[in-house]
Every structure is written in structure tokens, then in C-alpha cells.
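Figure 6 in text form: structure in, sequence out.
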């Protein structure tokens, strides 16, 4: 292996940035390297001289990145999920949190969708496929993120790698089933990171009039309906998304859910109803630290409008999936929104991403999903 010398190294954090590395332009992007700080070996990783994240560490010792290494890591990651998740579908590999930087694998029943976001992992795709073959997959589909690939200088590629993608893919979550559109859906098709938050919504929903904003494929709506909600209104901007959500409502025999195609901001400003429970799960308002001020304003404004729609004693379940907005910042944003709305709010719950998305203590970038459950005091 080639050797890379670094000026700065944070124990436990697997990223080393370009300004912390003595550049080696003679090493091709994605190469496996030994990492040294002075004369001390601090681990092994992938090197990319063209990326802001110049080194992605996968081991704290001198260790080659082999097919056997990948297989052990994936088997270990899946074994952990079987301890903390009791569904047939979940996030099987969560990148750096599982020692496989730049790799995401989601398990959909007996099929797998993978996303590769680093040069080093992209160069070893065959190792991943060989490891997944041990699980006898019905299919392996690659669905990559164009934005993250562009940061690493990797061509965008998505498509079926092995097996056959079923015409109608159903997964099980708790006692409910969901249709998933892997090819055209957001991310890899389903948001497993919201699992514990959906369970909280189900527990809160009984007898309440529920508003599900940015409903995507209807999972929150189904959980609320199955929790005994008096009514559920689901809102999203995409007709194709709403079509899938309607199918999921029918699949789970929920008869009290209605849908509306609308921009969430426009809907909240024009709708005249008040609700007992509002679920607000917007997409990330920023993927860049440079736009955090703009993102905070976006979260403040949408939460402000949602808070205005709460009945006295009503609940707001609000999420933020941007790493660049910290937990503390998100809470302050909600506080400002409540003050502007003239409502007194109290926190009745705090959730984070589901346990199949484990957080590295020394890597705050792996902690991205924040959720607060708030009640409007009567």
C-alpha cells in the first residue's frame, strides 16, 4: 500500500480533509493507503486527492481492503440489525458507521439496494456484490446519489446489477406492509430512518384528526390510521408519490385517509382547518454548510405555519434531516416559530434516526435526523 502523511488526525473520526493531508497527486483516486501522522500509523483508508474528504479511514491498523474484509463487515452489520430491527426490511449498511465508508445498503425483503458514494468503494464494487451473494439475493439494484458522486468525481450510475426487480415490491414494517418504488422513489425507495418516529405517531393518533405533510409514500398516514386516527389528510406535491401512497393505504385497509396534491407552504396558508396531530417531515433544506442560514429560515417558516394549524392541546411531530442543522439549532428554530405563532409549546418527545442507522460518537456527521414532538399548551 502507498503511504499518506496527515497533519491532523481525530481519533474515532474516519474522515481526513484535504487541508489536513500532505497531497500525493501520484496516487490515483480511490487507492488504498496507509495513514501516518509523523511516524505513527493511524490506520488504513481510501485516498482521493480531488475530494474535500481526502482520506476515508476504514481501519485503525494497517489492513488491506479485500473481498474477505468486505464480507466480514457486511455480515457483522447485518447481524447487528437483526438484534435491533424486527422487520424483513431495513438499512443493512450505514457507511462509516459500519466501517465501510461511502457504502449504503438497504434490504428490501429478499432484495438489496446499494448506494456508493466514495471513489474507493466504487473501485471495489465486485467485493460488495460477492458479499451480498452470500445472502442469496433476489436482486441487487444500484441507485446512486448524483450530488454525492459529483463531490467524489464519480460518474453517476443506477440500475439492476443482478436478479430480477419484482413488478410489485412489498416490504413489512411492524404489522404493516408497504409498496416500494425503487427505480423512481426518493433515496433508495423507503425511509427506514423514520421507523421509531412512525411508531410514536401511531401511539399518538388514536381519536385525533391528523395532517401528514410531505407524506411521500404514505407511511406516516398508514401508521396514524392504524393507530386509530379519526381522520388523516396527507399532502405532497408529487402526483406519482400520492398514487403510491394511495396504494399503501388500500394495502393496509385504511379507509379514513384523504390526499391532496399541493405545495406544503401553499397548503398551510390556504387551509382553514385545525388539527389534533400534525406530522411535518420535509426534505433537507440544505446539503451545504454555506446555506445553513437559508435552511434555518425554511424550517422556521414551515414550522410556523404548521404550529398555527394546531388545535389547543394538539401535537406537532416535526423532523429535520440535515446534518448541517444541529439538534440545538433545530430546537431554537422551533422555539422561534412558536413565539411568532403566539403559541406556548412543550416538548413531550425527542427521537433520532432509527437504530439501523447507528451514530458514531466521534463522527457527528452520522447524526443527521432530529425529531421533536411538541404539544401546544391550551
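Output sequence:
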Amino acid at each position: 500500500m502507498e503511504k499518506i502523511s496527515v497533519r491532523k488526525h481525530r481519533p474515532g473520526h474516519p474522515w481526513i480533509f484535504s487541508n489536513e493531508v500532505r497531497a500525493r497527486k501520484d496516487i490515483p483516486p480511490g487507492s488504498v493507503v496507509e495513514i501516518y501522522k509523523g511516524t505513527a500509523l493511524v490506520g488504513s483508508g481510501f485516498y482521493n486527492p480531488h475530494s474535500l474528504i481526502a482520506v476515508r479511514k476504514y481501519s485503525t491498523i494497517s489492513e488491506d481492503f479485500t473481498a474477505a474484509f468486505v464480507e466480514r463487515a457486511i455480515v457483522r452489520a447485518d447481524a447487528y440489525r437483526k438484534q435491533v430491527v424486527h422487520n424483513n426490511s431495513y438499512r443493512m449498511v450505514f457507511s462509516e458507521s459500519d466501517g465501510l465508508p461511502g457504502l449504503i445498503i438497504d434490504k428490501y425483503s429478499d432484495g438489496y439496494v446499494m448506494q456508493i458514494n466514495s471513489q474507493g468503494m466504487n473501485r471495489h464494487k465486485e467485493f460488495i456484490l460477492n458479499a451480498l451473494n452470500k445472502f442469496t439475493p433476489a436482486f441487487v439494484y444500484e441507485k446512486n446519489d448524483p450530488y454525492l458522486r459529483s463531490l467524489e468525481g464519480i460518474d453517476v450510475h443506477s440500475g439492476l446489477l443482478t436478479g430480477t426487480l419484482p413488478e410489485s415490491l412489498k416490504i413489512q414494517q411492524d404489522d404493516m406492509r408497504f409498496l416500494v418504488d425503487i427505480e423512481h422513489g426518493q433515496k433508495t425507495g423507503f425511509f427506514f430512518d423514520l421507523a421509531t418516529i412512525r411508531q410514536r405517531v401511531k401511539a399518538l393518533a388514536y381519536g385525533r384528526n391528523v395532517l401528514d405533510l410531505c407524506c411521500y409514500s404514505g407511511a406516516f398516514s398508514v401508521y396514524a390510521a392504524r393507530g386509530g386516527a379519526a381522520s388523516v389528510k396527507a399532502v405532497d406535491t408529487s402526483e406519482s408519490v400520492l398514487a403510491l401512497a394511495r396504494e399503501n393505504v388500500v394495502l393496509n385497509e385504511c379507509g379514513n385517509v384523504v390526499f391532496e396534491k399541493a405545495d406544503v407552504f401553499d397548503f398551510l396558508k390556504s387551509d382553514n382547518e385545525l388539527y389534533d396531530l400534525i406530522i411535518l417531515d420535509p426534505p433537507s433544506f440544505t446539503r451545504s454548510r454555506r446555506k445553513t442560514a437559508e435552511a434555518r429560515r425554511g424550517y422556521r417558516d414551515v414550522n410556523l405555519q404548521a404550529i398555527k394549524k394546531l388545535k389547543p392541546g394538539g401535537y406537532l411531530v416535526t423532523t429535520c434531516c440535515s446534518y448541517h442543522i444541529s439538534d440545538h439549532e433545530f430546537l431554537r428554530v422551533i422555539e422561534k416559530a412558536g413565539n411568532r405563532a403566539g403559541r406556548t409549546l412543550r416538548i413531550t418527545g425527542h427521537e433520532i434516526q432509527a437504530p439501523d442507522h447507528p451514530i458514531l460518537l466521534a463522527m457527528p456527521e452520522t447524526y443527521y435526523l432530529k425529531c421533536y414532538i411538541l404539544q401546544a399548551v391550551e
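Caption detail: The radius of gyration is 22 Å.
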